[in-house]
């Protein structure tokens, strides 16, 4: 998860500025199977989302490498770091309810902790845009060793906040540094504002209002695809430790959902908030931080002005727990979002990239 680029700028390259003018679903099933077979991965899926729903959805392959149980259109997929956009949208809901502020200083949100004075200028908005000066290598390895303990997940998140905020920032304020720790702290702040675990509030404020009935946390269980480990693509039983990151990492990347339900979340960004968020909240969630590379908003990388959007910005993100891979591309100006998913990680990158390019050519360019 830490090593994934997450900003899919590669999706903006290699696509002609003028290709098919009309969406073309002919041959998509064959293309999916070809990409999956060429990458040698168990399963691959994709969807095209419009403000009215799903314009195309397809899956191919098997739930477990070496097995014969086919993946289905309703299987759930681990979203990895694409959870971050959900955590940020949850905070937007709290802002709209008058329970939170985008400019809230971390010292106020964590008033119960001893916060080093050097954090005084840092707000929760810096956390959501990875510009708070938190460097994962400085804090995550030690915390991860303790995160599998028996402690309550909220307490584990607080322990990370205590470590991070009790010392000066390791990085520079306003300089981009992708940070899972920052989103775990954002989750801990949400827990302080609501008095409930992040998981409970995400269900109440995101999953339930949007009708995401398949959404949950950790590797999906039951009759479903499994994630696959390493270059050997060993299927990983979702019931055992190691099938996902520690639960305490949740706000940074443990959500799962079917493509249909993930599409319902993405439609919020195509429908002007879909009656669930205000346009003001959407403007905050999709506005990148200070100038500099890369352009990153609240849980979204921002590609500015690619030819295949007609010059409009595109929101993008990848997510992986090293056993799954998910990609979202959202172009509000084109009223279109793309989903690409696989139940493997590094070996699936070529298939995800190939599917992204094809969907851009057929549905966006």
Report on this model:
The chain is 34% helix and 15% strand. With 365 residues, it is α+β, with helices and mostly antiparallel strands. A hairpin with a 4-residue loop joins strand 10 (325-331) and strand 11. The protein is globular. Residues 1-6 and 8-22 have low confidence and may be disordered.
Topology summary:
Blueprint (H helix, E strand, L loop, with lengths): L27 H12 L3 E8 L2 E9 L14 E3 L4 H14 L9 H4 L14 H5 L7 H11 L6 H13 L14 H15 L3 H13 L5 E2 L9 E3 L4 E3 L13 H4 L1 E4 H9 L11 H8 L14 E3 L10 E6 L5 E7 L4 E7 L6 H15 L2
Antiparallel strand pairs: 1-2, 1-11, 3-7, 4-7, 5-6, 8-9, 9-10, 10-11
Keywords for this structure?
six-stranded antiparallel beta sheet, 12 helices, alpha+beta, 34% helix, three-stranded antiparallel beta sheet, globular, 365 residues
């Amino acid at each position: 998860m830490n090593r994934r680029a997450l900003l899919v700028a590669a999706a903006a390259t290699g696509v002609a500025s003028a290709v098919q003018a009309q969406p073309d679903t002919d041959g998509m099933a064959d293309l999916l199977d070809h990409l999956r077979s060429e990458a040698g991965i168990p399963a691959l899926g994709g969807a095209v989302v419009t403000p009215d729903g799903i314009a195309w959805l397809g899956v191919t392959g098997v739930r477990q490498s070496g097995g014969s149980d086919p993946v289905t259109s309703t299987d759930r997929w681990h979203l990895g770091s694409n959870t971050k956009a959900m955590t940020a949208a949850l905070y937007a809901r709290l802002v709209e309810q008058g329970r939170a502020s985008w400019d809230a200083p971390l010292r106020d949100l964590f008033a119960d902790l001893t916060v080093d004075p050097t954090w005084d200028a840092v707000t929760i908005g810096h956390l959501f845009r990875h510009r708070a000066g938190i460097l994962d290598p400085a804090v995550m390895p030690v915390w991860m060793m303790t995160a599998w303990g028996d402690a309550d997940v909220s307490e584990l998140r607080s322990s990370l906040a205590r470590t991070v905020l009790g010392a000066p920032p390791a990085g520079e304020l306003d300089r981009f540094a992708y940070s899972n720790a920052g989103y775990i702290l954002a989750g801990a702040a949400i827990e302080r504002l609501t008095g409930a675990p992040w998981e409970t509030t995400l269900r109440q404020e995101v999953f339930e209002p949007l009708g995401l009935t398949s959404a949950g946390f950790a590797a999906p269980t039951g009759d479903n695809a499994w994630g696959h480990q390493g270059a050997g693509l060993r299927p990983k039983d979702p019931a055992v430790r190691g099938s996902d990151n520690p639960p305490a990492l949740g706000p940074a990347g443990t959500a799962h959902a079917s493509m249909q339900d993930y599409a319902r979340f993405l439609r919020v960004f195509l429908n002007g908030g879909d009656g669930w968020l205000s346009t003001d909240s959407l403007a905050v969630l999709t506005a990148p931080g200070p100038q500099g590379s890369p352009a990153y908003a609240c849980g979204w990388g921002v590609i500015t002005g690619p030819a295949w959007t007609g010059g409009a910005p595109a929101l993008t993100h990848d997510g992986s727990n090293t056993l799954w891979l998910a990609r979202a591309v959202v172009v509000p100006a084109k009223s279109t979002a793309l989903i690409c998913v696989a139940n493997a990680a590094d070996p699936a990158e070529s298939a995800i990239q190939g599917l992204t390019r094809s969907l851009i050519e057929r549905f966006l360019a």
